[in-house]
Each structure stands twice: as structure tokens, then as C-alpha cells.
Amino acid sequence: MIDMIEKEEPIISEEEAAQYDRQIRLWGLDAQKRLRGSRVLLVGLGGLGAEVAKNLILAGVKGLTLLDHEQVTEESCRAQFLVPVTARGQNRAQASLERAQYLNPMVEVRAYPDRPEDKPDDFFLQFDAVCLTGCSRDLMVRVDQLCSQRNIKVFCGDVYGYYGYMFSDLGKEHHYALRIFCSLKEALEVDWTSEKAKASLKRTPVDYFLLHVLLKFRTDKGRDPDPQSFAEDSQLLRQIRDDVLESLAVSGDLLSDDFVSYCFSEMSPVCAVVGGVLGQEVVKALSQRDAPHRNFFFFDGRKGNGVVDYFGPN
Asked: A GO biological process this protein is involved in (predicted)?
């Protein structure tokens, strides 16, 4: 049983005031105090996770916990700047710790090499926000449902080649404004045969349906599409696309065959964009300084633009 961390009144020291002077001028002392009183769990230390970690540490949260059971590989070294090239074979979270801490010694950074699926519920309830990257659909839904009962903010995100997304669930009534945030389960289980959903189909980014395909691939294979098995994985992706779009009762023409050419590996520039948005959304939610996205953000690196949209019940 893990003891819940007592919320304490955050105090900004003179040293911290100097460190965060620009941010305090930008969004005010109260917002920075709220940020300095917040603890965040970051799951997944791939390229996207490294970007999010950097942004949260530099913003000045109280504590950041890194959780990842994967090992450093040659591919992760290309997209992940927190791990040294000499760290191949080591745990990604632990290999990221030294450089992450160096970014801002005022932030308490910890690393755990465990599988997130093996962590008990109480582990996730220690934090003010949980950010999940590179996770299975089942784990994301589980953590989102668990944390929503305790008013803990949940963020999810991934990068697949040129594509990236983020999702946020800040609760039914986030403190900043009376905005309704649906759960991830609700967002992914839209009934596309309903008249309301049909009416919104034209303005729904095709990336939403691509996300379904990629999450199903991860569930079925236990990994993401691998460039080393491009031909085999491309064929499987097209088959999963057909099955997913049929199960959702939407047109099979939504995703053309060439989508498979753009969703392999984490690309550093896409990680930087999506990680910047995701990190900023966590900061906004914790500091309560600006209106947050509701609920999805999708990025298509081929077009160089992002789309914000909302799915779920009103």
C-alpha cells in the first residue's frame, strides 16, 4: 500500500523565483505556485516521452516520476535525446534519469524500471497528473477510469512516423472552466451509426480512425509497426484497417492504402511537435492558466498541421 502524498501549500523560494522569472512574468506567481505543488507520472520514455519530460521539468513541476520497462535500443537512441548512446541495453527510464535531472535540479526526478501494467492502482493515485505514452489501449482506459474517480488529470499520446496525437481527460468539470471532458473509453467507443455521430463524421479527422488501427495493431502484436518487418506489418495494417473501419460502421475509403508508408517509427520532429503540445497541455491543466484542449489533438507531419477536436457525449 502506497501512502497518498499530502498536498502542501507550495512556496516559491527566492532561488526558484529567479529560476522561473520569465514564466512568472508570463503567467503569474499563483500559476507557478500551482505548478510547483504538482507531481506528475510519465509512462514511456521513447522519443515522445523524452520531449514531454523535458517540457515538464523545465516548466518547474514539483516532481516527475519516469516509468518504463523497455530497454534502450539503437532506434530509441535516434529519437530519444535523454539517453546516451552508450546506454544500449539499459532500462530507458533509468538511463534517462541523469540527463533529465540535469535539466532542472529543483525538480525531483525519479525513475522506475517496472511494467506499468504490473503497478497496483494505488501507485497511480499518488500523482496530480498521469501522462501515458507508448501504452496499450487497455492500460490507458484502466488508468483513465481509475484516476477520474480521484480527480487526477490524465493525458495520453503517441507518435507513429509522421502521425501523432494527444488526448486529455481533465474530469467532467475542470476547474478552469465548465468544460465537459469525456473519458478515453467514451472517446474511442463512439457509436458511428447514430445520427449525431454521422453528422459530425465530415469534420472528424481521419487520424482518429487511424489511431484505432494503430492501437489495434499494438494490442494484437504487442508492439508498434517495425521498419525491419515493413512488408509483413504493412499487410497486417491494411487488414486491421479493413476490420476496424467495418466494425465502426464507417466507409472503408477513409484510409487509403498508402497510409502504411507514413506510420513506422518515432520521428524526432514529430515527437518535438506533439511533445510540445502534450507537455503544454499538462502545464496548462496543472497551473490553471489557460483553456485546455478538449479532448484530442492530432498532428500530421506530411501536412505540417494539427487538428483539435472533441469526441464523446455532450
From this structure: protein sumoylation
Edge-first strand listing for the sheet containing 129-133: 108-112, 63-67, 39-43, 129-133, 153-160, 163-169, 296-300, 305-309
Distance CA(304)–CA(270), nearest Å, equals: 9
Q: Which of 133, 68, 130 is nearest to 97 (CA)?
A: 68
Decide if 12 is inside a domain: no
In this structure, how many other beta carbons lie within 10 angstroms of the beta carbon of residue 239?
A: 12
Distance CA 170, CA 179 (A): 9
Q: Are both 208 and 88 inside the same structural domain?
A: no
Residues 218 and 201 in one domain: yes
Residue 237 CA to residue 241 CA, distance in Å, equals: 6
C-alpha cell at 126: 499518488
Residue-by-residue pLDDT tens, the chain, 314 positions = 344 445 566 777 777 777 777 777 777 778 788 888 999 999 999 999 999 999 999 999 999 999 999 999 888 778 899 999 899 999 999 999 999 999 999 999 999 999 999 999 999 999 999 999 999 999 999 999 999 999 999 999 999 999 999 999 987 655 555 556 789 999 999 999 999 888 888 888 899 999 999 999 999 999 999 999 999 999 999 999 999 999 999 998 999 999 999 999 999 999 999 999 999 999 999 988 877 777 899 999 888 665 655 454 44
Q: Looking at the chain, how many residues does it have?
A: 314
287 and 230: one domain? Answer: no
Q: pTM here?
A: 0.91
Residues 148, 233, single domain; the answer is: no
